[in-house]
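FAQ: What does a ligand-bound record look like?

Like this one, built around magnesium ion:
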Amino acid sequence: MDTIAAIATGGAPTAIGVIRISGPEADAAASRVFCADSGRAFDALEPRKMVLGTLRDREGRTLDHGLAVRFPSPGSYTGEPSVELHCHGSPMAMGEILSALFAAGARQAKAGEFTRRAFLNGKLDLTQAEAVIDLIDAETAAAARNAAAQLGGTLGRSISAVYDDLTDLTSRFYAVVDYPDEDIEDLQQAQIQKTLRSADETLSTLLATCDRGRVLKHGVRTAILGRPNVGKSSLLNALAGYDRAIVTSAAGTTRDTLEESVVCGGILLRLTDTAGLRDTADPIEALGVDRARDAASRAQLSLLVLDGSEPLTPEDLAAMDLAAAAPRSMAVVNKADLPLRLELETVANRFSRVVSISAMGNQGLDALETAVAELFPTGEASGEVLTDPRQQEAVSRARDAVHRAIEAMGTGLTPDAVLTDVEEAMNALGELTGRTAREDIVSAIFSRFCVGK
Ligand SMILES: Nc1nc2c(ncn2[C@@H]2O[C@H](COP(=O)(O)OP(=O)(O)OP(=O)(O)O)[C@@H](O)[C@H]2O)c(=O)[nH]1
Ligand SMILES: [Mg+2]
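The answer part, i.e. the structure of the complex:
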């Protein structure tokens, strides 16, 4: 196994920069660039304790004063002998130190290679490796909390529990297949049925978390809809916290769709501001209205904006129809700073959630946040949420196979027919945790990582 090294803190100047080294020659390579102030030999430094010293380039010239930590095997992230060097985050100085490490026999680590080694050495399973990247990429606190729980191993453990039950079950089956004269006793039959049903239940519960997982990881596609001049762009700006969109008193200001991501009620909303919906003779505006309709058709959530200071117009009613067609929708009655002239009851009859705001005065946004949080409950961050299409596909394949096994048992098919299904379920679950994952699946996962992780 090669010894690998990389800057773990990116290429920009930072207060502190970390260089990671892992592999059999980690101590030897590090000893060439780090000299403890105490004068102790590098491989005699106390494990997992930070030690002060000088960092040097390949000619032995001092480049920085910093810290080193040794992690002897197996008590390291990768499971291999590892070292971390903490220095000032100067890309130039760190580049020189790295090149000295390469001269000492280490090579540049590839993206995700440290975590990949951790996986290969059994330090974490694939669901935990995926949690590492999800944690780094998390865009909301809820997503980070869920990734942290998954990193703790919750998802891997519940999958492994099902896997182990099925292993146990197959061994019983093999006993019967090997001695065909013996029938499976009724008691055994009942037990096998019970195991299969309980596997089905666990997997179905996991599959029910897919929607929640998608929201956590990818956020909610949200269209801001309404007739011209009601304050759609003002709402976008209020949520974004800066003047993202042009706002004027002229109806038809927004022509093209405009996108911005915000965290609202703890949920990541991928907002699209749209052109005001109306019939228009202006060909450019008409194209904008087409795009607005398109955004509405793709939205998971639509925010219908109405002007509370005016009675409903036929254009409002048409916009309502469009907005109400989205899987989730909410009416946002804007301009609450002006006297109310809108027929609130008509709106409330159509939308179960109606919030009153003043986008211009930044008022009522908390009510909007609460309503969004209620529409998309993230639940507690158990980590037992399927956030990735790969995970969802594997669990779904496992559950289908378990279903077939249950059916085969019911129709009195031969034990080996049932076995085939059970083994297929186990394969799918093994892919998920990495017990039986193919190389291409593993590679695809680690390609999402950055260098140094
Ligand atoms: N009084 C009051 N005026 C508002 C409020 N929000 C927006 N406006 C005004 O309403 C007008 C239209 O606002 P926009 O945000 O451009 O409306 P829009 O729905 O994006 O309009 P189009 O892009 O033309 O479809 C502007 O003059 C805003 O200043 C509000 O809360 N109170
Ligand atoms: Mg606008």
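Follow-up question: can I read anything off the structure? Yes, for example: The chain has a mean pLDDT of 93.
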